[in-house]
């Protein structure tokens, strides 16, 4: 038996399986694209059948390429999406609803009248919507023949051939179905939504053997589960109070370990961050917070796909670097509104300061600098809500390979940027959690001691120049707010 972990990582648009080694290296990666669909505006549905098939095909491919038995299996996943299936046959029932889906916006507003504050991007009302379609009288739910799970619980069920039905605390905490301690499901919420406790998975540790992946050769133990952002947090070595990382993907998410002694109030804080479970070990939760920018890498995709500025997203780096500055052009990334700190769903993207001399390179540079400025928004909000001073920022995600962007991020935040040696640190984090439970590492500290940044990028702007640029950008951001007033007034 080797000291290697097989990790299955189910993202929003693909399923990836890899081998994580004892030194933290990630190898033998196999990836299959599994894109969500949008049957109507605001609706996002998953192809759960294709996800299950891709889990098995990529896991077997990675295991075969490695050529030896693995010590355990870890799972990382997109959070808050909702999947319902038959407990006996595994048949998928109704639509599988993705985390970005907004079909339950009105229902969320109606529920506020009953004192239940749920956002449409959490799991709760998605499960309710599916059950209303396939089990309107809840007879099947009461009979215990349904399983209502998030992606992690479905993946564990597929790998175990139906013998494991669990979710870990990092995933349970963003379902909207649990109490403030994220230890139990909230009875009142379940009653209002008519969701039977028997249809929901048991809440377990992020690290610990929960069963066996009998669908794979050798039936390795399933030993670690974490939502993608928390897996990335661990994968970048952020396990102590004050450690923070930002993942720049389609959007951007900053996660900070607060290590609060008591469970924080499960509500949005003053500066727009949310409490999360960073990870749970031996029944003990390590708390954190999350700050969100709704648009990040999608802005570069806009330049590529809609404006035709370049053929590959990576080309944005060279194009932006071809000019010394944006020449006064400012971009506000708000294609679907602003998240932390203002949470204005009616804000829209803005491009200001254009002149006749503005070219593709200036706009591209402004877009990268605008995403970096949103990163500074997240940092400032996290510091204000946590009362912690953040030091160097650990960064992963596709944009971490863009040198122009990373330098802009260092300048916007005024602090060093430590770039992850793995573009997607989620896989490594899930591997650490699984390996910890089977003894590959004696402690989480021992696991993350293998994490060494690929590169550290220092700020190049003087503080006075940085603060002046920050003031100009914040003024521009205020002009993008409230573009669609009726949406700006919606709060969850």
Measured between the Cα atoms of the first and last residue, the distance is 49 Å
Percent of residues in helical segments?
25-40%
Regarding CATH, which class of the largest domain? Alpha Beta
CATH third-level topology of the largest domain:
Nucleotidyltransferase, domain 5
Number of domains: 2
**If helices are DSSP runs of H or I spanning 4 or more residues, what is the number of helices?**
16
Mean pLDDT: 96
Summarize the main sheet: 7 strands, mixed
Strand order of the largest sheet: 15-16-14-13-19-20-21
CA-based shape: globular
| Second-tier CATH architecture of the largest domain | 2-Layer Sandwich
- Can you count the beta strands? 21
Share in β-strands:
15-25%
Q: Segments where pLDDT lies below 50 for 5+ residues?
A: none
CATH superfamily of the largest domain: ATPase, nucleotide binding domain
Helix/sheet category:
alpha/beta
CA-based gyration radius: 22 Å
Architecture overview:
This protein is of the alpha/beta class and 492 residues long. The chain folds into two domains: 5-229, Nucleotidyltransferase, domain 5 (2-Layer Sandwich), CATH 3.30.420.40; 237-419 and 461-492, Nucleotidyltransferase, domain 5 (2-Layer Sandwich). The protein is 33% helix and 21% strand. The protein is built from 16 helices and 21 strands. It has helices at 48-66, 105-112, 124-134, 139-142, 151-159, 169-172, 187-193, 228-235, 297-306, 315-321, 360-386, 403-413, 426-437, 444-448, 463-480, 485-488; strands spanning 5-10, 14-20, 26-33, 45-46, 72-77, 83-86, 96-97, 146-149, 166-168, 202-204, 207-212, 221-227, 244-248, 252-257, 274-281, 284-293, 330-332, 350-352, 393-396, 417-419, 455-457. Strands 15-16-14-13-19-20-21 form a seven-stranded mixed beta sheet, with helices on both faces. It has a six-stranded mixed beta sheet with strand order 3-2-1-5-12-11, with helices on both faces. It has a two-stranded antiparallel ribbon with strand order 4-7. Strand 19, helix 12 (403-413) and strand 20 (417-419) form a beta-alpha-beta unit. Helix 1 (48-66) packs across helix 5 (151-159). The termini are far apart. The mean pLDDT is 96.
């Amino acid at each position: 038996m080797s000291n290697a972990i097989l990790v299955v990582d189910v993202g929003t648009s693909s399923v990836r399986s890899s081998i994580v080694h004892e030194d933290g290296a990630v190898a033998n990666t196999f990836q299959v694209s599994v894109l969500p669909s949008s049957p109507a505006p605001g609706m996002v549905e998953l192809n759960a059948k294709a996800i299950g098939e891709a889990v098995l095909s990529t896991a077997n491919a990675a295991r075969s390429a490695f050529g030896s038995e693995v010590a355990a299996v870890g799972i990382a996943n997109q959070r808050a999406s909702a999947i319902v299936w038959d407990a006996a046959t595994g048949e998928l029932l109704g639509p599988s609803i993705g985390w970005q889906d907004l079909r339950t916006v009105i229902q969320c507003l109606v529920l506020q009248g009953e004192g239940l504050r749920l956002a449409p991007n959490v799991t709760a009302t998605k499960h309710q919507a599916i059950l209303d379609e396939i089990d309107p009288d809840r007879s099947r739910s009461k009979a215990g023949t349904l399983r209502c799970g998030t992606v992690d619980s479905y993946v564990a069920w597929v790998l175990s051939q139906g013998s494991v039905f669990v979710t870990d605390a990092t995933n349970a905490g963003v379902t909207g179905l649990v109490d403030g301690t994220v230890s139990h499901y909230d009875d009142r919420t379940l009653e209002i939504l008519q969701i039977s406790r028997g249809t929901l998975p048991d809440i377990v540790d992020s690290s610990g053997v929960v069963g066996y992946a009998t669908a794979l050769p050798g039936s390795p133990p399933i030993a670690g589960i974490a939502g993608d952002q928390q897996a990335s947090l661990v994968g970048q070595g952020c396990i102590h109070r004050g450690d923070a990382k930002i993942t720049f993907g389609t959007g951007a998410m900053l996660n900070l370990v607060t290590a609060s002694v008591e469970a924080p109030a499960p509500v949005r804080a003053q500066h727009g961050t949310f409490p999360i479970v960073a990870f749970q070990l031996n029944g003990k939760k390590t708390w954190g917070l999350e700050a969100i920018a709704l648009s990040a890498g999608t802005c570069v995709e806009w330049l590529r796909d809609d404006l035709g500025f370049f053929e590959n997203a990576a080309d944005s780096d060279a194009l932006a670097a071809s000019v010394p500055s944006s020449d006064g052009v400012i971009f506000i990334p708000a294609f679907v509104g602003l998240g932390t700190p203002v949470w204005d769903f009616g804000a829209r993207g803005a491009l200001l300061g254009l002149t006749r001399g503005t070219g593709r390179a200036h706009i591209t540079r402004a877009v990268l600098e605008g995403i970096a400025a949103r990163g500074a928004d997240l940092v400032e909000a996290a510091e204000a809500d946590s009362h912690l001073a953040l030091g160097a920022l650990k960064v992963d995600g596709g944009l971490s390979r863009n040198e122009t962007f990373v330098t802009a991020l260092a300048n916007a935040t005024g602090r060093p940027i430590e770039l992850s040696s793995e573009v997607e640190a989620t896989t490594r984090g899930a591997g650490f959690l699984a390996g910890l439970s089977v003894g590959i590492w004696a402690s989480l500290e021992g696991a993350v001691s293998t994490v060494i940044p690929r590169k550290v990028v220092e700020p190049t702007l003087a503080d006075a120049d940085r603060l002046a640029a920050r003031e100009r950008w914040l003024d521009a951001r205020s002009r993008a707010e409230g573009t669609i007033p009726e949406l700006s007034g919606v709060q969850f």
